[in-house]
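Collaborator request, handled under Task 6.
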Amino acid sequence: MAASTRSAEHAENTEPLPREEPEVGSEESVPTDGRDTEGEKLMKDVKNPKLHEPGLAEHKTPEKAEKAEGGKKAA
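Structure tokens returned to the collaborator:
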């Protein structure tokens, strides 16, 4: 019966530990409406013609693709 008393005492003394939440660093950077208008504007200002060319990226920069393929084969 001592074992059942011990487990009952243990159950009374064990409370769930409070969770520690990370501190919010910069609340102003989180849009309240779920849209990131500043980020969207920056993405529209990106000027890279290769982004609009059809085809795979490997064909647009063949020397880099060869290096990447060579690294994959050796690994």
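The cover message to the collaborator said: "The chain has a mean pLDDT of 69. The CA atoms of residues 29 and 36 lie 9 Å apart. Please let us know whether this matches your experimental observations."
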